[in-house]
Design a protein that fits this description.
It is a single chain. The protein has 14 helices and eight strands. It is an alpha/beta fold and about 325 residues long. A six-stranded parallel β-sheet has the order 3-2-4-5-1-6, sandwiched between helices. α13 links the parallel β7 and β8. The N and C termini lie far apart (about 45 Å). The mean pLDDT is about 90.
């Protein structure tokens, strides 16, 4: 396994904040797993003091398996934001898996509320996913309900549905996935003793796909990382496509401002794609001026020029 100079620099980063700009095919999983190994073997960090956060269960499991293949050190925590934060809530409040509101039950509650508001069956079907998305947005952005203007229904209707939904599932003793974020944030704000315990537990925090983070996740992350701020983030602002579900790419863009002295490392080699693909992708993304400027080099040889075609309509395209 050959490791590039940029990857080596990221892996061997010392203490304090670091931001690794890692595009597709740049070996970010290798960097995260190798850095975790490096912290344990070279910096003598206890495995239980390392937290690796990803955005999906599949990514967390892949990371865990990749790390296990190169290291015999058990005890590192690999998990999603929801899994990590729910673990904190379990110890604080005694929550179990039975305390989580299922997506099916959430839809049932909201469907019933729409019927109470006398929504038409056709409207109900279209509004449900939009309502779920907007409720999540309000919670994760910590938006004052009085100042939120719904896109799915009239403002007053949305506020009534939101308030009733919160009342119903809380009376059932259940929390939804967004509540895991809200409750964790409130707990750590109110209980500095509990916060200090988790800060000592997770002294080194590594985050994958950081461009997808939302405001509430970032606030909690910053609290957990104090006072040492050993926050190692990996992501690609060019791949931030989840603003509709609360992701804020500007968080990554402003990270060096939030943490002056951040070690910014660009993984400038693409091991996956050939030169024409990389060149064309850069030409497209450079139209966005609100981004980190990157110069990416190809490793794979070969490839042909990309054939770009325009069609008048779908029928023409299908011919």
């Amino acid at each position: 396994m050959q490791i590039s100079n940029a990857q080596s620099r990221a892996i061997a980063h010392g203490t304090g904040p670091a931001m690794v700009l890692a595009g597709p095919g740049s070996g970010k999983t290798l960097v995260i797993t190798q850095r975790t190994k490096y912290l344990i073997e070279e910096h003598h960090v206890k495995p239980r003091e390392i937290l690796v956060i990803t955005f999906t269960k599949a990514a967390a499991e892949e990371m865990r398996q990749r790390f296990a293949a190169i290291s015999g050190s058990p005890g590192v925590t690999f998990g999603t934001f929801h899994a990590v934060f729910f673990g904190i809530l379990k110890l604080a409040y005694g929550f179990t898996s039975a305390s989580i509101l299922s997506e099916e039950k959430k839809y049932q509650i909201l469907q019933q509320l729409l019927r109470e508001m006398r929504a038409e069956p056709g409207e109900e079907k279209d509004m449900l996913p939009e309502l779920v998305s907007e409720i999540s947005l309000v919670k994760n952005e910590q938006i004052d309900l009085a100042h939120y203007y719904s896109k799915s229904c009239p403002e007053e209707t949305f506020r009534r549905i939101y308030s009733r939904y919160e009342q119903i599932h809380k009376e059932m003793g259940l929390l939804d996935f967004d509540d895991m974020m809200v409750y964790t944030y409130e707990l750590l704000k109110k209980r500095p003793d509990i916060l200090e315990g988790w800060q000592k537990r997770f002294r080194y925090i590594l985050v994958d796909e950081f461009q997808d983070i939302n405001l509430l996740q970032y606030k909690i992350l910053r609290m957990l990382a104090k006072p040492e701020d050993n926050l190692f983030i990996v992501g690609d602002d060019d791949q931030s496509i989840y603003r509709f579900r609360g992701a804020k790419p500007e968080i990554m863009l402003n990270f060096p401002k939030d943490y002056p002295g951040t070690d910014v490392i660009l993984l400038d080699q693409n091991f996956r794609s050939v030169a024409p693909v990389i060149k064309s992708a850069i030409q497209v993304i450079e139209e966005n001026t609100n981004r980190f400027k990157k110069e990416i080099h190809h490793v794979r040889q070969g490839g042909t020029d990309i054939d770009v075609r325009e069609f008048d309509n779908q029928e023409h395209e299908s011919l």
